[in-house]
Design a protein that fits this description.
Serine Threonine Protein Phosphatase 5, Tetratricopeptide repeat; 619 residues; alpha+beta; Heat Shock Protein 90; 5-stranded mixed β-sheet; two-stranded antiparallel sheet; 25 helices
């Protein structure tokens, strides 16, 4: 295993510095890492696999590995790394353009952050949130998030930071560069793009290094800073990796345009030829669009030389090639240039026809933009609705928890328990009285403490139920109540988190309506995981009078019936809301049946099944 761990360490470096080496190591690890491997190896493997497949545009694989990493971290209750992993999952969904999934992942990440969270971790989250707003056309919110991310990164310690932190830093500055470019703030855009370069150079973040230089070069061109643009594009050519065809052609093409600006047509033509040679076998729409742009640049060169025949030839070739690229804006520009060219040559009929096509394509492109804008607006509104609904649901859950606390303990139980303790004291059984008074006080203290919590571990919940049942057994049933609580097999009770104050009303109901009429009985509580691992099934069975008779007899007084109804209604509503917050499908989360009906009258009693959502620990 030492060698496998060593390869995982190498992968943590090469994922950010050398994609080819990372690819080879990932293939090696894929052959040896499985579900039986130590958790640290599985976690490293799935975390880096998710990152790399996202970089390579294998988004389904990236999501699969990210979810496996999340599952491991959930079993470890590692809040900080869970926040980071959910933020990484949001990044994958952003690249897939699945805005809702990205927002859900960011929401999950936020749950693990508190006021004292690591500022660098907060920067990771702000960065992803900024890019979500950038994609959705919310420039002000995007700027706020990215600026907040940049500010949080001020605490970054170069000695203690890892490569991923510096990678996130490059994303922040790149995002700011893109944002300022869209806002027309060219100087700020150039400054932001240039901030990326020393980071990637200093830490050897070579993947996509050529694109960082291209961004800086484009921003410099927009500022008419020819020297800076020239240096950036030449640097992009130096660092471009094998297989980065698009980056290389962009660098060559932009260098060609700079040569045209300098009236060096021979150099410009040679650079355009080199760029075209990179696309021997175009296959993707982007390949055809890039080839078409190269032909347009050639046409512009010959137009500048007043060679209209060659200019027309390359424009028509650009038009033909661009058809397979489906870039409506680019095609409308070609048609516009052809119309102008034919107008210069007095071919007015051809000029009119090309102008008509240019107008039609421009209109289609405008419609495309409007459709995209409408989708983005709808997505923004839907995200806002989702946030508001989630917030309202949480507020309702909090309110219900307070109501649940008031309705939780049957006043009859509390009165009888204290009365029984008083009886022990008056009969001289002071040690017993002291013991059960301490248990009763501890149970009441836990009830108050749990009212401030959303979730507790299953171990804590079982401990609370045992204390509640033990007090009932001794003080109310004179040792004639038996009970057994069975934890789920193959699961650590400390790793399972359940909502507070859900099960006690069902246990109380079993005692009051099933066992109390007979003055003795047995209660069994069994926990098990659901098949998908997202819920915890709790089955409560008593051997009392049965559900049907219990309803008919109405043996409890009116005040207890009112308490029981109120407590059960609150519990049912809370449980439904909690499942909604976990995005579980609507279903019957509480099932109650008479054991006589289930066993063909072989047994009496009541069978209750409650599906609890498995929650995340509070940070």
């Amino acid at each position: 295993m030492a060698e496998v761990r060593h390869r995982c360490q190498q992968l943590s470096r090469w994922a950010y510095t050398d994609f080819e080496r990372a690819r080879k190591v990932l293939e090696e690890l894929s052959a040896v890492v499985d579900k039986n491997s130590p958790f640290d190896i599985r976690l490293a493997f799935h975390t880096h696999s998710a990152f790399l497949h996202n970089q390579w545009h294998h988004y389904d694989k990236a999501v699969e590995h990210a979810k496996l990493a999340v599952a491991i971290l959930e079993s470890l209750a590692d809040a900080s790394n869970l926040a980071e992993m959910w933020a990484d999952l949001a990044a994958i969904h952003l690249n897939r353009r699945d805005w809702r999934a990205a927002e859900r992942s960011l929401d999950r990440a936020r749950r693990y952050l508190n006021d004292g969270a690591d500022p660098v971790l907060k920067a990771h989250l702000f960065c992803r949130e900024g890019f979500l707003h950038l994609h959705l056309g919310n420039p002000r919110q995007a700027l706020d998030c990215l600026m907040e991310a940049e500010k949080s990164m001020l605490s970054l310690d170069d000695e203690q930071a890892d490569l991923k932190d510096f990678y996130i830093q490059t994303l922040i500055f790149s995002g700011l560069g893109d944002l300022y470019e869209r806002l027309g703030e060219k100087a700020k855009s150039l400054e932001s793009y240039r901030c990326v370069l020393p980071i990637v150079e200093r830490h050897g973040l070579r993947p996509r290094l050529s694109w960082h230089y291209l961004n800086a070069g484009r921003a410099a061109m927009a500022q008419q800073d020819v020297a800076q643009a020239q240096a950036s594009f030449e640097k992009a050519m130096e660092v471009v990796s094998e297989g980065e065809t698009e980056a290389k052609t962009h660098a060559l093409g932009n260098l060609g345009i700079l040569a045209l600006w300098a009236d060096n047509t021979a150099r410009a033509l040679a650079l355009f030829d080199k760029a075209a040679a990179e696309y021997e076998n175009p296959s993707k729409p982007a390949d055809f669009t890039n080839l078409s742009k190269i032909e347009s640049w050639r046409a512009g060169l010959f137009s500048q030389l007043n060679d209209l025949v060659k200019a027309q030839y390359h424009l028509e070739k650009s038009w033909e090639t661009g058809q397979n690229g489906h870039d409506l804006y680019h095609l409308s520009q070609i048609a516009q240039n052809l119309a102008a060219l034919h107008g210069q040559q007095k071919n007015f009929e051809q000029a009119y026809e090309w102008q008509r096509q240019a107008s039609e394509l421009a209109a289609k492109h405008d419609n495309q933009l409007r459709d995209r804008e409408r989708e983005e607006i709808e997505a923004r509104h839907q995200l806002e609705r989702n946030r508001q609904e989630a917030q309202m649901a949480r507020l309702r859950v909090a309110s219900l928890q307070l109501r649940a606390l008031r309705a939780q303990m049957n006043p009859h139980f509390m009165f009888n328990a204290l009365n029984a303790i008083q009886g022990l004291i008056t009969s001289g059984r002071n040690k017993e009285a002291e013991s059960y008074l301490a248990k009763f006080a501890k149970m009441m203290r836990h009830t108050l403490e749990y009212s401030d919590l959303e979730v507790v571990t299953l171990e804590q919940e079982i401990e609370f139920l045992e204390r509640y049942l033990d007090i009932n057994r001794k003080l109310r049933f004179r040792d004639k109540l038996e009970y057994q609580i069975t934890a789920p097999p193959d699961a650590d009770q400390n790793d399972l988190y359940v909502p507070t104050m859900i099960l006690q009303p069902f246990v109380e109901n079993a005692i009051e309506h099933g066992i109390r009429p007979r003055q003795e009985g047995r209660l069994e509580i069994a926990f098990s995981l659901s098949d998908d691992g997202q819920m915890l099934r709790c089955v409560i069975e008593d051997d009392g009078v049965g559900y049907n008779k219990g309803r008919q007899k109405q043996s409890a007084g009116a005040d207890f019936q009112s308490h029981r109804s109120r407590g059960m209604d609150i519990t049912r509503e809370r449980l439904t809301l909690l499942h909604q917050l976990q995005k579980h499908e609507q279903g019957d989360f509480i099932r109650i049946a008479d054991l006589g009906d289930l066993t063909q009258k072989m047994r009496s009693g009541t069978h209750v099944e409650v599906l609890l959502p498995l929650m995340e620990p509070e940070s």
